[in-house]
Amino acid sequence: MTIELEDIGSNPAPRATIGEIIEARFSRRGTLLSALALAATGTDALAQGAPREGGPSTLTFPELRHQLAQTDAVAQGHKTHVVIRWGDPVLPDAPAFDPRNLTAAAQAMQFGYNNDFIAVLPPQRGAPIADRALLWANHEYTNTNLMFPGMGTNNQARARVTAGQAEAELMAHGGSIVEIERVDGNWRPAAAPRLNRRITGATPMTLSGPAAGHPRMRTSADAAGTRVLGMLNNCAGGTTPWGTVLTCEENFNNYFGGELSDTTQTESHRRYGIVATPGYGWYRHMARFDRAQEPNEANRFGWVVEIDPYDPTSTPIKRTALGRFKHEGATHAIAPDGRVVVYMGDDERFDYVYRFVTARPWDAQNPAANRDLLDEGTLSVAKFETDGSMRWLPLVHGQGPLTAANGFASQADVLIETRRASDLLQATPMDRPEDVETNPTTGVVYVMLTNNTSRTDARVDAANPRPANKHGHVLEIIPPGPDNRREHAADIMRWGLFLRAGKPGLDAGAEYHLATSSEGWLSCPDNCTFDSKGRIWIATDGAPGAAGVADGIYAADTTGPGRALTRLFYQAPTGAEVCGPLMLPDDSALFIAIQHPGEDSGSTFESPSTRWPDFVDGMPPRPSVVVITKTGGGAVGS
Ligand code: FEO
Ligand code: CA
Ligand code: CA
Ligand code: CA
């Protein structure tokens, strides 16, 4: 999501000043290129825009050149194919897409807006992916001005939304399950699907875990505090070893408005950026989003939602044990003893990185035993030390400052106010933690820190070393143990920086591999995926504003002589970010979600900055899932 709708940072007194920056940490990394080193080795090639060969990178595709364009582009030797677009049918009775007559009923049966996280799952639980699969896509948010005619630009549109439009937007949120099949090398919606489903902002869901049923979770429509309608702003996500999808509510604050009637919750709402006049005007039409009428409804959003894609009748479950914050994703790793570890980021300036460890191991032989595994375990928040160590601080009621004296009467309070609990534990305030993903080859955990222009000189720390961090960086967390048996449940780990984004030689502190080309630098890392060789594929969000180049996908080795040598592989159409990168296990296809195409300043339904992907007069831009394959077959990127 663009920064316009994201909160500007609600952590009032970040205790980031841990001391001086330990530059030695970076100089130890001989392959990284500091601005100084770049000057010494000559910036001419960079300045002249001549892409170099891949150097020591194992990735051999020819790099693209940075550009801003109405359409997308992929490295030579590869092709793109739109799998499904906003408005395409998901359910059998879905009407044909009619952007001039958008209704809630139609949207509830069609592919929703602004696809973000993507999961591609086997057609049957536990089976391999061959030529048929299940696609999950989040629908994070809506661009009111690009969905409806006559709305003007974005800010104008959100304020003047009608009740009917608000209902349609609600239905355009959530997620989709779509059976897909591979035909002639291209993935497309499958004929005769049995599992297709639309989850929306109104789908009944269960609340489970320690916060379920707590008085602060009760509303006039749900006296028990255990049942909620819908999920909102689902950004990134993950999957579980037992074949369910984890989909995560991010900027939920944008939907709740009006004057808060319960003043005991004023500080809690403030910490999450919930204000009287939010980004969306829904609260004027739907009572549950009006804080004067329903002061607790917002407490029921901001969670990780578990969905069983193999049972279209299953009820999605909000797992409160995983904490309440602006969740980016929730990706899992398995500890050697079989406990499941979920890594998560809270995407806000000066907010935190989290980890959840299940109380029990998962059981591959007994699926029923895993059903509620995510209801019991320990949520922790990350503290990064200057000596290269990091510690997971448990968010457990009764431990340390998390007591009634500080307003935490139970674990439910700790979870409903996860951010305030983490503040008290003095976790490390980060530069907007987006995706946190484990490299399956090395067991090293990668944290995308997208940017933080509010960080001042006085607030820099070793893990967030740049003031006014416009371009972000990528941090590695290294659990103890060998590559194939990392102790993901350990409380003490090591950390380091993988790269510092921005343009080398221009942006202070930008650091990559020495051989990174004039096209290989990136800005605003957001999400990532890994291929079968353990190489990282980084998607960006915000590069046009921060660096004047399109958002895209950059690939790099994570080990060996080509480590951190990022290479430009794909570029999004104007206004769009790239979300949900997902490489199939055999590297035969890279799925990506193109979100908010045309979300440029001044863009309107009538006159959008692009009409990607259809390029048909009168057709607005359409967020779409795209699959990238190698022309003629083979491993993507080779
Ligand atoms: Fe929805 Fe943090 O990106
Ligand atoms: Ca994003
Ligand atoms: Ca994101
Ligand atoms: Ca982002």
Verbal overview:
- This protein is mainly beta and about 650 residues long.
- The chain has one domain.
- Helix content is about 10%, strand content about 30%.
- The strands form seven sheets. Strands 15-16-18-19-20-25-24-23-22 form a nine-stranded antiparallel β-sheet, with no helix packed on it.
- A hairpin with a 2-residue loop joins β6 (about 175-185) and β7.
- The radius of gyration is 23 Å and the shape is globular.
- Mean pLDDT is about 90; it is low at about 1-10 and about 10-50.
- It binds MU-OXO-diiron and calcium ion (3 copies).
- MU-OXO-diiron binds near residues 1 and 328.
- One calcium ion binds near residues 434, 450, 526 and 541.
Structure summarized in a few sentences:
This protein has eleven helices and 33 strands. Helices cover 10% and strands 28% of the residues.
Number of strands: 33
Average pLDDT reading:
92
- In helices, the fraction of residues equals 10-25%
Instruction: Tell me, briefly, the overall form.
Output: globular
Largest sheet: 9 strands, antiparallel
Class by alpha and beta content: mainly beta
- What's the total helix number? 11
Largest sheet, order of strands side by side?
15-16-18-19-20-25-24-23-22
Give the uncertain stretches in residue-range form.
Answer: 2-8, 12-52
Rg (CA only): 23 Å
Overall domain count? 1
Task: Write down the oligomeric state.
Answer: single chain
Strand content: 25-35%
- The separation of the N and C termini measures 31 Å
Bound ligands = MU-OXO-diiron, calcium ion
